[in-house]
Write a structure and sequence with these properties.
Layout: E1 11-14, E2 18-26, E3 29-35, H1 45-60, H2 65-70
Antiparallel strand pairs: 1-2, 2-3
């Protein structure tokens, strides 16, 4: 993990098209601005984990290949 120190108003650039700017610091709360293309998904970690868990749960309920082979369409 790369650890950088930044002050209010300073930025970090990732690749050619993502910029993370420190907008404000108040005690233990830091406000961050993220400038990234719309094609890049940006989530808070706890939301990202919820999405991953929901996706994992959804795939558990998918039919197996054997179950699909037993399916016969109506004629």
């Amino acid at each position: 993990m790369l650890i950088l120190s930044r002050r209010k108003g300073e930025s970090i650039v990732i690749g050619d098209n993502i910029e993370i700017c420190i907008m404000d610091v108040q005690g233990e709360v830091i406000k961050i601005g993220i400038d990234a293309p719309r094609t890049v998904s940006v989530y808070r970690k706890e939301i990202y984990n919820e999405i991953e868990n929901a996706n994992r749960e959804a795939t558990r309920n998918l039919p197996t290949v054997e179950q699909l082979k037993q399916f016969k369409p109506k004629e």
